[in-house]
Design a protein that fits this description.
InterPro entries: PhoU-like_sf (IPR038078), Put_Phosphate_transp_reg (IPR018445), UPF0111_domain (IPR052912). By secondary structure, the protein is an all-alpha fold. Helices cover 78% and strands 0% of the residues.
Length: 206
């Protein structure tokens, strides 16, 4: 890690950790959605919406701190990028839950549980990684594993699309379910964007 003679604003680390912890909360709500019947899904969507608002608050707090800090722990554009990518994850997860409720989906296609399991694992890894930004140590395995998970998510997504277009579902149902699985895939992509941003920061700070 590069030695610095100037002091640094350290509250960013805590805010990134809080944002990532909130994503874990969102991933647990996604898992809860899998086992819920249609009558319980609206309440889960409300809790997910609250988690998404908490994520927005965390992101705005980082931006406010960034605008008011003279010295930052790493490049300003990287702080902005990392905060934005974390926020994107919550946005996609909340959108997926909301679509399930709005579309009155009776049953999610087989394979969606695998998508959500990948997201849950990526959320855990991301939350574990954020505290290591203080030292920039022990992060390599994190971004390697998240990239592997994103590749796995791609494969699951392609299989889901093949399943949706196999003639089992009517055209309207295909449109609904495809939008949901596409948004979940975007969440997986967003986790990879976070990991790639962390890798960029670590390389700059080495």
């Amino acid at each position: 890690m590069r030695f610095r003679l100037t002091p640094r604003e350290t509250s960013f680390y805590d805010m990134f950790a809080a944002s990532a912890d909130n994503i874990v909360t969102g991933s647990k709500l996604l898992m809860e959605l899998l086992g819920a019947d249609s009558s319980a899904r609206a309440e889960i969507a409300e809790r997910m919406r609250a988690a998404e608002h908490a994520g927005d608050d965390a992101t705005h707090a980082i931006f406010h701190q960034l605008n008011s800090s003279f010295i930052t722990p790493f490049d300003r554009e990287d702080i902005y990028s990392l905060a934005s990518c974390l926020d994107d994850i919550m946005d996609f997860m909340e959108e997926a839950v909301d679509l399930v409720v709005l579309y009155n989906v009776e049953e999610l296609p087989k394979g969606v549980e695998q998508q959500i399991e990948v997201l849950a694992r990526a959320a855990e890894l991301t939350a574990e990684a954020m505290p290591h930004l203080r030292t920039m140590e022990n992060l390599t395995e994190y971004w390697i594993e998240v990239n592997r998970l994103e590749n796995q998510a791609d494969q699951i997504h392609r299989k889901l699309l093949a399943q949706l277009f196999n003639g089992k579902y009517d055209a309207i149902e295909v449109l609904k379910l495809k939008q949901i699985v596409d948004v979940l895939e975007e969440a997986a992509d967003a986790f990879e964007h976070v990991a790639n941003t962390v890798e960029t920061i670590a390389v700059k700070e080495s």
